Protein backbone atom coordinates (compact mmCIF):
# COMPACT_ATOMS: atom_id res chain seq x y z
CA UNK A 1 0.00 0.00 0.00
CA UNK A 2 2.83 2.41 0.73
CA UNK A 3 4.26 1.75 -2.70
CA UNK A 4 0.84 2.38 -4.26
CA UNK A 5 0.60 5.72 -2.47
CA UNK A 6 4.05 6.68 -3.78
CA UNK A 7 2.94 5.81 -7.32
CA UNK A 8 -0.16 7.97 -6.97
CA UNK A 9 1.96 10.88 -5.72
CA UNK A 10 4.36 10.49 -8.68
CA UNK A 11 1.48 10.48 -11.14
CA UNK A 12 -0.10 13.56 -9.53
CA UNK A 13 3.18 15.52 -9.57
CA UNK A 14 3.70 14.99 -13.36
CA UNK A 15 1.40 16.47 -16.02
CA UNK A 16 -0.70 14.20 -18.21
CA UNK A 17 1.26 14.38 -21.51
CA UNK A 18 4.69 14.00 -19.86
CA UNK A 19 3.67 11.31 -17.31
CA UNK A 20 3.12 8.49 -19.77
CA UNK A 21 6.71 7.24 -19.94
CA UNK A 22 7.37 7.43 -16.11
CA UNK A 23 4.04 5.68 -15.56
CA UNK A 24 5.04 2.93 -17.94
CA UNK A 25 8.37 2.45 -16.13
CA UNK A 26 6.63 2.35 -12.80
CA UNK A 27 4.10 -0.21 -14.03
CA UNK A 28 6.91 -2.42 -15.25
CA UNK A 29 8.63 -2.23 -11.85
CA UNK A 30 5.37 -2.79 -10.00
CA UNK A 31 4.52 -5.83 -12.11
CA UNK A 32 7.93 -7.34 -11.42
CA UNK A 33 7.58 -6.68 -7.67
CA UNK A 34 4.00 -7.96 -7.27
CA UNK A 35 4.37 -10.93 -9.56
CA UNK A 36 4.19 -13.33 -6.62
CA UNK A 37 1.70 -11.42 -4.44
CA UNK A 38 -1.22 -11.64 -6.92
CA UNK A 39 -3.03 -8.73 -5.24
CA UNK A 40 -4.29 -5.58 -7.08
CA UNK A 41 -5.64 -2.61 -5.23
CA UNK A 42 -8.92 -1.44 -6.83
CA UNK A 43 -8.25 2.21 -5.95
CA UNK A 44 -4.83 2.05 -7.51
CA UNK A 45 -6.23 0.52 -10.69
CA UNK A 46 -8.96 3.19 -10.90
CA UNK A 47 -6.48 6.03 -10.36
CA UNK A 48 -4.09 4.53 -12.88
CA UNK A 49 -6.89 4.18 -15.42
CA UNK A 50 -8.06 7.74 -14.87
CA UNK A 51 -4.55 9.20 -15.20
CA UNK A 52 -3.89 7.19 -18.37
CA UNK A 53 -7.20 8.31 -19.90
CA UNK A 54 -6.48 11.97 -19.11
CA UNK A 55 -2.95 11.72 -20.52
CA UNK A 56 -4.13 10.02 -23.68
CA UNK A 57 -6.94 12.54 -24.17
CA UNK A 58 -4.52 15.47 -23.76
CA UNK A 59 -2.05 13.87 -26.14
CA UNK A 60 -4.82 13.24 -28.68
CA UNK A 61 -5.95 16.89 -28.53
CA UNK A 62 -2.41 18.10 -29.06
CA UNK A 63 -2.01 15.79 -32.05
CA UNK A 64 -5.25 17.08 -33.52
CA UNK A 65 -4.03 20.67 -33.18
CA UNK A 66 -0.74 19.77 -34.87
CA UNK A 67 -2.65 18.07 -37.68
CA UNK A 68 -4.79 21.18 -38.25
CA UNK A 69 -1.63 23.30 -38.39
CA UNK A 70 -0.06 20.92 -40.92
CA UNK A 71 -3.21 21.01 -43.07
CA UNK A 72 -3.21 24.83 -43.09
CA UNK A 73 0.46 24.91 -44.12
CA UNK A 74 -0.20 22.42 -46.91
CA UNK A 75 -3.08 24.52 -48.24
CA UNK A 76 -0.88 27.60 -48.20
CA UNK A 77 1.93 25.75 -50.06
CA UNK A 78 -0.56 24.58 -52.71
CA UNK A 79 -1.81 28.15 -53.30
CA UNK A 80 1.79 29.38 -53.64
CA UNK A 81 2.48 26.64 -56.21
CA UNK A 82 -0.51 27.76 -58.31
CA UNK A 83 0.70 31.39 -58.20
CA UNK A 84 4.18 30.32 -59.32
CA UNK A 85 2.75 28.37 -62.26
CA UNK A 86 0.78 31.45 -63.34
CA UNK A 87 3.86 33.67 -63.14
CA UNK A 88 5.89 31.17 -65.20
CA UNK A 89 3.17 31.25 -67.86
CA UNK A 90 3.51 35.04 -68.07
CA UNK A 91 7.27 34.66 -68.42
CA UNK A 92 6.79 32.25 -71.33
CA UNK A 93 4.58 34.82 -73.08
CA UNK A 94 7.27 37.48 -72.63
CA UNK A 95 9.84 35.10 -74.14
CA UNK A 96 7.61 34.51 -77.18
CA UNK A 97 7.40 38.25 -77.71
CA UNK A 98 11.20 38.51 -77.46
CA UNK A 99 11.63 35.80 -80.11
CA UNK A 100 9.25 37.66 -82.44
CA UNK A 101 11.27 40.84 -81.93
CA UNK A 102 14.49 38.95 -82.76
CA UNK A 103 13.00 37.72 -86.04
CA UNK A 104 12.14 41.32 -86.96
CA UNK A 105 15.68 42.32 -86.16
CA UNK A 106 16.93 39.66 -88.61
CA UNK A 107 14.77 41.25 -91.32
CA UNK A 108 16.38 44.61 -90.52
CA UNK A 109 19.83 42.99 -90.92
CA UNK A 110 18.80 41.70 -94.38
CA UNK A 111 17.81 45.27 -95.32
CA UNK A 112 21.23 46.39 -94.09
CA UNK A 113 22.91 43.94 -96.51
CA UNK A 114 20.86 45.42 -99.36
CA UNK A 115 22.09 48.87 -98.34
CA UNK A 116 25.70 47.65 -98.45
CA UNK A 117 25.16 46.36 -101.99
CA UNK A 118 23.76 49.75 -102.99
CA UNK A 119 26.77 51.53 -101.45
CA UNK A 120 29.06 49.23 -103.47
CA UNK A 121 27.22 50.18 -106.66
CA UNK A 122 27.58 53.85 -105.66
CA UNK A 123 31.32 53.37 -105.34
CA UNK A 124 31.45 51.87 -108.83
CA UNK A 125 29.49 54.87 -110.11
CA UNK A 126 32.02 57.21 -108.47
CA UNK A 127 34.88 55.34 -110.16
CA UNK A 128 33.15 55.72 -113.52
CA UNK A 129 32.68 59.44 -112.86
CA UNK A 130 36.36 59.77 -112.02
CA UNK A 131 37.29 58.09 -115.30
CA UNK A 132 34.93 60.47 -117.12
CA UNK A 133 36.66 63.42 -115.44
CA UNK A 134 40.04 62.11 -116.58
CA UNK A 135 38.77 61.80 -120.14
CA UNK A 136 37.34 65.32 -119.89
CA UNK A 137 40.71 66.67 -118.78
CA UNK A 138 42.38 64.96 -121.73
CA UNK A 139 39.76 66.33 -124.10
CA UNK A 140 40.24 69.81 -122.66
CA UNK A 141 43.98 69.52 -123.25
CA UNK A 142 43.37 68.53 -126.87
CA UNK A 143 40.93 71.40 -127.18
CA UNK A 144 43.54 73.80 -125.83
CA UNK A 145 46.06 72.54 -128.34
CA UNK A 146 43.50 72.86 -131.12
CA UNK A 147 42.66 76.39 -130.04
CA UNK A 148 46.33 77.33 -129.93
CA UNK A 149 46.82 75.90 -133.38
CA UNK A 150 43.76 77.72 -134.62
CA UNK A 151 45.08 80.95 -133.10
CA UNK A 152 48.42 80.52 -134.84
CA UNK A 153 46.66 79.74 -138.10
CA UNK A 154 44.43 82.78 -137.73
CA UNK A 155 47.41 85.04 -137.02
CA UNK A 156 49.22 83.70 -140.09
CA UNK A 157 46.09 84.20 -142.19
CA UNK A 158 45.78 87.75 -140.86
CA UNK A 159 49.40 88.53 -141.71
CA UNK A 160 49.04 87.10 -145.23
CA UNK A 161 45.74 88.85 -145.90
CA UNK A 162 46.52 92.14 -144.10
CA UNK A 163 47.66 93.80 -147.30
CA UNK A 164 44.69 92.53 -149.25
CA UNK A 165 41.84 92.48 -146.72
CA UNK A 166 42.13 95.59 -144.57
CA UNK A 167 38.40 95.54 -144.13
CA UNK A 168 38.62 92.17 -142.34
CA UNK A 169 40.94 93.51 -139.61
CA UNK A 170 38.11 94.49 -137.27
CA UNK A 171 36.48 91.08 -137.65
CA UNK A 172 39.80 89.35 -136.97
CA UNK A 173 40.36 91.42 -133.83
CA UNK A 174 36.86 90.58 -132.64
CA UNK A 175 37.52 86.90 -133.20
CA UNK A 176 40.78 87.17 -131.28
CA UNK A 177 38.97 88.76 -128.32
CA UNK A 178 36.37 86.03 -128.38
CA UNK A 179 39.08 83.41 -128.47
CA UNK A 180 40.80 85.04 -125.48
CA UNK A 181 37.56 84.99 -123.54
CA UNK A 182 37.09 81.35 -124.51
CA UNK A 183 40.56 80.52 -123.23
CA UNK A 184 39.87 82.30 -119.97
CA UNK A 185 36.61 80.44 -119.56
CA UNK A 186 38.31 77.12 -120.35
CA UNK A 187 40.97 77.89 -117.71
CA UNK A 188 38.28 78.63 -115.13
CA UNK A 189 36.42 75.46 -116.10
CA UNK A 190 39.62 73.47 -115.72
CA UNK A 191 40.16 74.86 -112.21
CA UNK A 192 36.55 74.11 -111.28
CA UNK A 193 36.84 70.56 -112.60
CA UNK A 194 40.04 70.01 -110.60
CA UNK A 195 38.47 71.34 -107.39
CA UNK A 196 35.37 69.23 -108.01
CA UNK A 197 37.56 66.16 -108.51
CA UNK A 198 39.40 66.80 -105.24
CA UNK A 199 36.14 67.23 -103.33
CA UNK A 200 34.72 64.10 -104.91
CA UNK A 201 37.81 62.08 -103.94
CA UNK A 202 37.58 63.35 -100.35
CA UNK A 203 33.90 62.48 -100.19
CA UNK A 204 34.61 59.01 -101.58
CA UNK A 205 37.27 58.40 -98.93
CA UNK A 206 34.87 59.56 -96.23
CA UNK A 207 32.10 57.31 -97.56
CA UNK A 208 34.50 54.36 -97.71
CA UNK A 209 35.50 54.89 -94.07
CA UNK A 210 31.85 55.16 -93.04
CA UNK A 211 31.07 51.97 -94.97
CA UNK A 212 33.84 50.07 -93.15
CA UNK A 213 32.60 51.34 -89.78
CA UNK A 214 29.05 50.38 -90.74
CA UNK A 215 30.18 46.83 -91.62
CA UNK A 216 31.95 46.49 -88.27
CA UNK A 217 28.84 47.65 -86.40
CA UNK A 218 26.71 45.21 -88.40
CA UNK A 219 28.98 42.30 -87.44
CA UNK A 220 28.84 43.37 -83.79
CA UNK A 221 25.04 43.53 -83.91
CA UNK A 222 24.85 40.08 -85.49
CA UNK A 223 27.05 38.68 -82.72
CA UNK A 224 24.86 40.29 -80.06
CA UNK A 225 21.76 38.90 -81.75
CA UNK A 226 23.18 35.36 -81.70
CA UNK A 227 24.11 35.75 -78.03
CA UNK A 228 20.59 36.96 -77.19
CA UNK A 229 19.04 34.02 -79.06
CA UNK A 230 21.29 31.52 -77.23
CA UNK A 231 20.38 33.13 -73.91
CA UNK A 232 16.65 32.95 -74.74
CA UNK A 233 16.95 29.22 -75.55
CA UNK A 234 18.81 28.64 -72.27
CA UNK A 235 16.09 30.46 -70.31
CA UNK A 236 13.42 28.39 -72.06
CA UNK A 237 15.16 25.19 -70.93
CA UNK A 238 15.40 26.56 -67.39
CA UNK A 239 11.68 27.33 -67.42
CA UNK A 240 10.88 23.79 -68.54
CA UNK A 241 12.99 22.46 -65.65
CA UNK A 242 11.07 24.73 -63.26
CA UNK A 243 7.78 23.32 -64.63
CA UNK A 244 9.03 19.79 -63.95
CA UNK A 245 10.05 20.74 -60.39
CA UNK A 246 6.62 22.27 -59.73
CA UNK A 247 4.94 19.08 -60.96
CA UNK A 248 7.13 16.97 -58.68
CA UNK A 249 6.33 19.20 -55.70
CA UNK A 250 2.61 18.94 -56.45
CA UNK A 251 2.91 15.14 -56.48
CA UNK A 252 4.79 15.26 -53.15
CA UNK A 253 2.03 17.43 -51.65
CA UNK A 254 -0.64 14.97 -52.74
CA UNK A 255 1.37 12.07 -51.25
CA UNK A 256 1.71 13.96 -47.97
CA UNK A 257 -2.05 14.56 -47.86
CA UNK A 258 -2.72 10.85 -48.33
CA UNK A 259 -0.20 10.04 -45.57
CA UNK A 260 -1.93 12.52 -43.23
CA UNK A 261 -5.27 10.87 -43.91
CA UNK A 262 -3.78 7.47 -43.05
CA UNK A 263 -2.32 8.96 -39.86
CA UNK A 264 -5.73 10.34 -38.86
CA UNK A 265 -7.27 6.92 -39.41
CA UNK A 266 -4.60 5.26 -37.27
CA UNK A 267 -5.14 7.84 -34.51
CA UNK A 268 -8.87 7.13 -34.54
CA UNK A 269 -8.19 3.40 -34.32
CA UNK A 270 -5.83 3.98 -31.38
CA UNK A 271 -8.48 6.10 -29.66
CA UNK A 272 -11.08 3.38 -30.09
CA UNK A 273 -8.61 0.79 -28.76
CA UNK A 274 -7.96 2.92 -25.67
CA UNK A 275 -11.70 3.26 -25.09
CA UNK A 276 -12.10 -0.51 -25.33
CA UNK A 277 -9.24 -0.99 -22.86
CA UNK A 278 -10.84 1.47 -20.45
CA UNK A 279 -14.13 -0.41 -20.71
CA UNK A 280 -12.29 -3.68 -20.07
CA UNK A 281 -10.66 -2.19 -16.96
CA UNK A 282 -14.06 -1.04 -15.71
CA UNK A 283 -15.51 -4.53 -16.16
CA UNK A 284 -12.49 -6.06 -14.44
CA UNK A 285 -12.93 -3.73 -11.46
CA UNK A 286 -16.63 -4.60 -11.18
CA UNK A 287 -15.84 -8.32 -11.33
CA UNK A 288 -13.25 -7.94 -8.59
CA UNK A 289 -15.70 -6.09 -6.35
CA UNK A 290 -18.33 -8.75 -6.85
CA UNK A 291 -15.92 -11.58 -6.21
CA UNK A 292 -14.30 -9.92 -3.19
CA UNK A 293 -17.56 -10.47 -1.25
CA UNK A 294 -17.27 -14.20 -1.74
CA UNK A 295 -15.12 -15.46 1.13
CA UNK A 296 -15.39 -19.16 0.25
CA UNK A 297 -13.63 -18.87 -3.12
CA UNK A 298 -10.47 -16.97 -2.20
CA UNK A 299 -8.03 -19.06 -4.19
CA UNK A 300 -10.03 -19.13 -7.45
CA UNK A 301 -10.61 -15.36 -7.11
CA UNK A 302 -6.89 -14.74 -6.82
CA UNK A 303 -6.28 -16.78 -9.99
CA UNK A 304 -8.91 -14.80 -11.91
CA UNK A 305 -7.42 -11.48 -10.67
CA UNK A 306 -3.97 -12.57 -11.76
CA UNK A 307 -5.26 -13.47 -15.24
CA UNK A 308 -7.10 -10.11 -15.56
CA UNK A 309 -4.04 -8.20 -14.37
CA UNK A 310 -1.86 -9.94 -16.96
CA UNK A 311 -4.35 -9.09 -19.74
CA UNK A 312 -4.49 -5.43 -18.68
CA UNK A 313 -0.71 -5.13 -18.58
CA UNK A 314 -0.37 -6.65 -22.04
CA UNK A 315 -2.97 -4.24 -23.43
CA UNK A 316 -1.21 -1.28 -21.80
CA UNK A 317 2.15 -2.30 -23.25
CA UNK A 318 0.59 -2.64 -26.73
CA UNK A 319 -1.09 0.77 -26.37
CA UNK A 320 2.21 2.41 -25.39
CA UNK A 321 3.98 0.81 -28.34
CA UNK A 322 1.24 2.04 -30.68
CA UNK A 323 1.54 5.57 -29.25
CA UNK A 324 5.34 5.56 -29.74
CA UNK A 325 4.93 4.42 -33.34
CA UNK A 326 2.39 7.18 -34.02
CA UNK A 327 4.71 9.79 -32.49
CA UNK A 328 7.60 8.61 -34.67
CA UNK A 329 5.37 8.77 -37.76
CA UNK A 330 4.26 12.31 -36.82
CA UNK A 331 7.93 13.34 -36.47
CA UNK A 332 8.64 11.96 -39.95
CA UNK A 333 5.70 13.93 -41.33
CA UNK A 334 7.05 17.12 -39.70
CA UNK A 335 10.50 16.53 -41.22
CA UNK A 336 9.00 15.93 -44.66
CA UNK A 337 6.95 19.13 -44.33
CA UNK A 338 10.10 21.12 -43.48
CA UNK A 339 11.92 19.65 -46.49
CA UNK A 340 8.98 20.52 -48.73
CA UNK A 341 8.93 24.10 -47.44
CA UNK A 342 12.69 24.40 -48.10
CA UNK A 343 12.21 23.11 -51.66
CA UNK A 344 9.47 25.69 -52.23
CA UNK A 345 11.80 28.47 -51.02
CA UNK A 346 14.55 27.31 -53.40
CA UNK A 347 12.03 27.28 -56.26
CA UNK A 348 10.99 30.86 -55.43
CA UNK A 349 14.64 31.98 -55.43
CA UNK A 350 15.19 30.31 -58.80
CA UNK A 351 12.08 32.06 -60.14
CA UNK A 352 13.41 35.45 -58.95
CA UNK A 353 16.75 34.81 -60.66
CA UNK A 354 14.99 33.92 -63.89
CA UNK A 355 12.90 37.09 -63.72
CA UNK A 356 16.06 39.18 -63.22
CA UNK A 357 17.70 37.47 -66.18
CA UNK A 358 14.64 38.13 -68.36
CA UNK A 359 14.76 41.83 -67.44
CA UNK A 360 18.44 41.94 -68.47
CA UNK A 361 17.56 40.24 -71.77
CA UNK A 362 14.81 42.81 -72.39
CA UNK A 363 17.30 45.63 -71.79
CA UNK A 364 19.81 44.11 -74.22
CA UNK A 365 17.12 43.62 -76.87
CA UNK A 366 16.00 47.26 -76.48
CA UNK A 367 19.59 48.48 -76.88
CA UNK A 368 20.00 46.41 -80.04
CA UNK A 369 16.74 47.86 -81.40
CA UNK A 370 17.99 51.39 -80.79
CA UNK A 371 21.26 50.61 -82.57
CA UNK A 372 19.35 49.31 -85.60
CA UNK A 373 17.25 52.49 -85.68
CA UNK A 374 20.41 54.60 -85.60
CA UNK A 375 21.82 52.54 -88.48
CA UNK A 376 18.68 53.19 -90.52
CA UNK A 377 19.07 56.93 -89.90
CA UNK A 378 22.72 56.85 -91.00
CA UNK A 379 21.73 54.92 -94.13
CA UNK A 380 19.23 57.64 -94.98
CA UNK A 381 21.95 60.25 -94.58
CA UNK A 382 24.24 58.30 -96.93
CA UNK A 383 21.47 58.09 -99.50
CA UNK A 384 20.99 61.86 -99.29
CA UNK A 385 24.73 62.40 -99.89
CA UNK A 386 24.65 60.09 -102.92
CA UNK A 387 21.67 61.99 -104.33
CA UNK A 388 23.58 65.25 -103.83
CA UNK A 389 26.53 64.01 -105.88
CA UNK A 390 24.17 62.77 -108.58
CA UNK A 391 22.73 66.28 -108.75
CA UNK A 392 26.24 67.69 -109.06
CA UNK A 393 26.90 65.30 -111.94
CA UNK A 394 23.77 66.49 -113.75
CA UNK A 395 24.90 70.08 -113.11
CA UNK A 396 28.26 69.32 -114.75
CA UNK A 397 26.42 67.90 -117.76
CA UNK A 398 24.39 71.10 -117.99
CA UNK A 399 27.61 73.15 -117.88
CA UNK A 400 29.01 71.12 -120.78
CA UNK A 401 25.86 71.82 -122.82
CA UNK A 402 26.13 75.52 -122.03
CA UNK A 403 29.78 75.48 -123.11
CA UNK A 404 28.76 73.88 -126.40
CA UNK A 405 26.09 76.52 -127.00
CA UNK A 406 28.58 79.30 -126.20
CA UNK A 407 31.16 77.89 -128.61
CA UNK A 408 28.55 77.52 -131.36
CA UNK A 409 27.51 81.13 -130.80
CA UNK A 410 31.09 82.45 -130.73
CA UNK A 411 32.32 80.33 -133.65
CA UNK A 412 29.58 79.70 -136.22
CA UNK A 413 32.07 77.71 -138.33
CA UNK A 414 34.39 75.96 -135.86
CA UNK A 415 37.34 73.93 -136.92
CA UNK A 416 37.27 70.14 -137.20
CA UNK A 417 39.37 69.67 -134.04
CA UNK A 418 37.07 71.89 -131.98
CA UNK A 419 34.06 69.97 -133.31
CA UNK A 420 35.71 66.70 -132.28
CA UNK A 421 36.35 68.04 -128.76
CA UNK A 422 32.72 69.12 -128.40
CA UNK A 423 31.51 65.76 -129.69
CA UNK A 424 33.75 63.95 -127.18
CA UNK A 425 32.40 66.09 -124.30
CA UNK A 426 28.81 65.40 -125.32
CA UNK A 427 29.53 61.68 -125.65
CA UNK A 428 31.02 61.61 -122.14
CA UNK A 429 27.98 63.46 -120.80
CA UNK A 430 25.64 61.02 -122.55
CA UNK A 431 27.53 58.05 -121.08
CA UNK A 432 27.02 59.36 -117.54
CA UNK A 433 23.28 59.84 -118.10
CA UNK A 434 22.33 56.66 -119.98
CA UNK A 435 19.22 54.90 -118.62
CA UNK A 436 21.17 51.70 -118.06
CA UNK A 437 24.16 53.43 -116.48
CA UNK A 438 24.95 52.58 -112.85
CA UNK A 439 24.82 56.31 -112.08
CA UNK A 440 21.06 56.26 -112.51
CA UNK A 441 20.35 53.06 -110.61
CA UNK A 442 17.53 53.69 -108.19
CA UNK A 443 18.26 52.86 -104.61
CA UNK A 444 15.70 51.42 -102.30
CA UNK A 445 14.18 54.32 -100.34
CA UNK A 446 14.51 54.20 -96.60
CA UNK A 447 12.10 56.10 -94.46
CA UNK A 448 13.43 58.65 -92.06
CA UNK A 449 11.84 56.91 -89.12
CA UNK A 450 11.29 53.20 -89.87
CA UNK A 451 8.35 51.69 -88.08
CA UNK A 452 8.99 48.36 -86.36
CA UNK A 453 6.41 46.26 -84.51
CA UNK A 454 7.96 46.07 -81.05
CA UNK A 455 6.70 44.08 -78.05
CA UNK A 456 4.83 45.94 -75.34
CA UNK A 457 7.66 45.98 -72.84
CA UNK A 458 10.13 47.32 -75.47
CA UNK A 459 7.68 50.09 -76.43
CA UNK A 460 7.33 51.05 -72.77
CA UNK A 461 11.11 51.08 -72.33
CA UNK A 462 11.62 53.16 -75.49
CA UNK A 463 8.99 55.72 -74.44
CA UNK A 464 10.52 55.88 -70.96
CA UNK A 465 14.00 56.54 -72.37
CA UNK A 466 12.59 59.22 -74.69
CA UNK A 467 10.91 61.02 -71.81
CA UNK A 468 14.04 60.71 -69.66
CA UNK A 469 16.28 62.15 -72.38
Q: What does the secondary structure layout of this molecule look like, with pairings?
A:
Blueprint: H1 2-13, H2 20-33, H3 42-161, H4 169-292, H5 298-410, H6 416-432, H7 456-468
Mean pLDDT: 70
Major sheet characteristics: none
Number of H- or I-type helical stretches:
7
Helix content: over 70%
Strand proportion:
under 5%
Radius of gyration: 55 Å
Question: What is the strand tally?
Answer: 0
Region (Disordered): 434-455
Coiled coil: 46-108, 165-287, 337-371
Keywords: Coiled coil
Structural summary, described in words:
- With 469 residues, the chain is mostly helical.
- The chain has one domain (38-158, 170-468).
- Helices cover 88% and strands 0% of the residues.
- The protein has 7 helices and no strands.
- It has helices spanning 2-13, 20-33, 42-161, 169-292, 298-410, 416-432, 456-468.
- Residues 1-20, 295-301 and 433-455 have low confidence and may be disordered.
- Keywords: Coiled coil.
Question: What distinguishing features does this structure have?
Answer:
469 residues, 7 helices, 0% strand, rod-shaped, coiled coil
Short description:
The protein is mainly alpha-helical. Helix content is 88%, strand content 0%.
Amino acid sequence: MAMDAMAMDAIAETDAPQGIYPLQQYLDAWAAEHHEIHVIDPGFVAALTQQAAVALESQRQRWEQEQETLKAELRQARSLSHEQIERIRHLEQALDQSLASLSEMQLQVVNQHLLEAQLASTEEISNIQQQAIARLKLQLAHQQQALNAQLIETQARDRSLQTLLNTMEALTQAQQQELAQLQTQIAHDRADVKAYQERLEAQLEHLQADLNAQQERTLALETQSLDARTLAEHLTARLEQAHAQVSELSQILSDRQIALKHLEAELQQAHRALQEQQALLDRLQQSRLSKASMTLAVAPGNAIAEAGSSTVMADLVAAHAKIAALEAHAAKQTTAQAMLRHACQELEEERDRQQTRLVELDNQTADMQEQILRQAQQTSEYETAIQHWKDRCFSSQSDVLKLKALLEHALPNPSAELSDVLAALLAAADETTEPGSPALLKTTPFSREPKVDLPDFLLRRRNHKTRRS
